Amino acid sequence: MQAKTVVVKLGTSVITGGSQFLNRAHMVELVRQCAELKQRGYHLVLVSSGAIAAGREQLGHPSLPKSMATKQLLAAVGQSHLIQVWESLFSIYNLKIGQMLLTRADLEDRERFLNARDTINTLVEHNIIPIVNENDAVATTEIKVGDNDNLSALVGILCGADTLVLLTDQPGLFTADPRNNPDAKLIREVSTIDETLIKIAGGSGTTLGTGGMATKLQAADIARRSGIEVIIAAGSADNVILESVSSSPCGTRFLPLPESLENRKRWILAGPAASGDIVIDDGAVNALQRKGSSLLAKGVTEVNGEFARGEVARIVNQSGTLIAKGLVKYSSEDMIQIQGMHSKEIGEVLGHDYGSEIIHRDDLVMMQD
Ligand code: GLU
Q1: What is d(CA 1, CA 99) in angstroms, rounded to the nearest whole number?
Q2: Is the pTM for the entire model greater than 0.85?
Q3: Where does the UniProt annotation locate this protein (predicted)?
Q4: CATH number of 5-265
Q5: How far is the CA of 309 from the centre of ligand 1 (A)?
């Protein structure tokens, strides 16, 4: 049987234990669990935050102006320090690690995405544990994934993971904010990510937002559509990494969708950031959802944002709910001119014609369960 692959994402709060320093005692405990998981035959990939915290530690907590450049300075110093600490801890168990620093720009282009996939898989095949982080020292806002939750979902897709474990300072996702609601209960299992759940996680900026549950939910959604089981749990829970591969893991478990996306669609979902929204009418929603059709210009009522041909856009219904994501065949500029029109009119209006569909079915990822 093929070895299962587990991606473990360690948040800064897990690595520092909420302090101003890397908590080596806790890091070594996590490494012990990783080593045991490897011993049991699992493949393992880590996504480690904490570069900036490590930078502050290494420089003795300097008081620096709050700017992008100083953040990048801290990341540059901290990333090498962080990886050295991981290296020394994993060497206790004779395990080798390899550092991979990514940004969204590395995943946006399909070819670069495939290159990154080859690297991570080659490391894994050679029994080396990849330790991934965002390349914070050079990444600007435009090319950033932005948070390591989403990054770890992308990494899960890259390495074809079976399980993604998001370790944080909370025991999982609760029915309400446990800090101010004593009745809040831990949600053990999630099979559908709906509006209520998004609200609970702080998607609307109401609860738990600072705990980072909103980005965890986004990551869980991307991963489960790609056939990856996701667990959100406390990094400090006993044997949390080992438990995550058991039949009853601690924390909140998100079940993968029964029909996971094919590889190219996983990349569409996870690689490129969407540059704009295409609003469609109810007839088009129905055609996409029920008939498996491509998107035609006729169903488009509005175009927001700017995108070029070949970029990814979000397709939303009249009330703004996300229906799908897809690679567009026409730029936003073209689309504004042809919205609502019959496919036959496209050539005449634009003076060029890239085909009757504005997003082909093969380039469309449905976002409803
Ligand atoms: N890449 C950041 C760091 O290493 C962490 C980002 C995150 O935790 O989401 O400090």
Answers
A1: 28
A2: yes
A3: Cytoplasm
A4: 3.40.1160.10
A5: 32
